[in-house]
Write a structure and sequence with these properties.
The structure is a single chain. The chain is mostly helical and about 290 residues long. The protein has two domains: about 25-115 and about 125-140, no CATH class; about 180-285, no CATH class. About 55% of the residues lie in helices and about 0% in strands. The longest helix is centred in the C-terminal third of the chain and has 24 residues, at about 205-230. The chain starts with about 20 loop residues before the first helix and ends in an 8-residue tail after the last helix. About 35% of the residues are buried.
């Protein structure tokens, strides 16, 4: 077993061949020291260090623009943040510390602001840590490459895919961001429970189903509430959903999903991890009435 680097006890991997610039090195060093469960750095302290650094960096001379804009820092910061987030087990404390840092950043006094020179710059003047521009941009960029349908080794990418789903489900649970739930969570659930690609040589259920189950374990009340009010009417059906209404969410669709978890638990291709995920999702779903009015 490889020795653990004392400066990086979680063995976080940048997974990028490019050489880090000085700014990225400082950010990476802070995050690797802050994220471990045993770290003595509080979320507020980490947020204050990040904010002090962005203010310092923004005043440095740049041969291109006179100074390095806050927006450039935010691009590097959020890219690194979400590159590391996929490696944090969504069930463990480092992921909670990751989320706590985002909360602490958003609660900072407004001292750093986005600068976008020129006319028609929509984010110019926005507080750096309250604007979701670069945060959402980097989260979206990280979400799509991590989809494990086309990645190997499978166990590594399946783990990271679960963590990305766990991250967005945590965001939803903590009311940090509805982006993940609205645009990603439901699509993950539908792909896992309403679709099946028979042309694939190996069943994708061991990739899709555990990721979908995370949303029910962490956000069952939110999903159930959306089904009660028949939310998201523009969301169409997967191949297996034949109930009514076809569009949008409903208690009938919730019941169908619960039934599918039961069926997939007994699928011959299901691993023990997938079976456990199905049982965990059903346990949460059983807490809510299944009557269709």
């Amino acid at each position: 077993m490889a020795a653990v680097d004392a400066s990086n006890p979680l063995n976080l991997d940048l997974g990028d061949p490019h050489e880090l610039c000085e700014t990225e090195e400082v950010i990476f060093s802070l995050l690797t020291r802050y994220l471990p469960e045993t770290s003595s750095i509080t979320p507020n302290e980490a947020a204050e260090q990040v904010n002090a650094f962005v203010l310092e960096v923004s005043q440095r001379p740049s041969p291109l623009e006179g100074k390095q804009e806050v927006s450039n820092f935010l691009l590097m910061f959020w890219e690194l943040m979400f590159r590391l987030a996929q490696q944090l087990d969504y069930r463990h404390e480092p992921m909670q510390r990751f989320i706590a840092l985002i909360k602490a950043l958003r609660n900072l006094p407004e001292t750093a602001f986005i600068e976008q020179p020129g006319p028609g710059a929509p984010y110019d003047g926005q507080p750096a840590w309250r604007s979701k521009c670069y945060y959402t941009m980097m989260l979206t960029e990280r979400w799509h490459p991590e989809n494990p349908e086309y990645k190997s080794p499978e166990d590594l990418w399946d783990f990271r895919w679960r963590n990305m789903n766990g991250l967005l489900a945590h965001f939803t649970h903590h009311n940090l961001d509805t982006y993940g739930y609205e645009k990603n969570g439901i699509s993950v659930i539908i792909r896992a429970l309403e679709e099946y690609r028979r042309k694939k040589p190996v069943s994708p259920i061991n990739r899709r189903v555990p990721a979908a189950a995370i949303w029910f374990v962490l956000c069952s009340s939110i999903i159930y509430s959306a089904c009660q009010r028949q939310g998201f009417p523009n969301i169409g059906p997967g191949k297996f959903w034949k109930g009514e209404p076809q569009q949008g969410l409903s208690i009938a669709r919730w019941n169908f999903w619960k039934k599918r978890f039961g069926e997939l638990e007994g699928h011959p291709d299901a691993t023990e991890l997938t079976k456990e995920a199905c049982r965990a999702a059903i346990e949460e779903m059983d807490k809510y009435p299944s009557d269709v009015e």
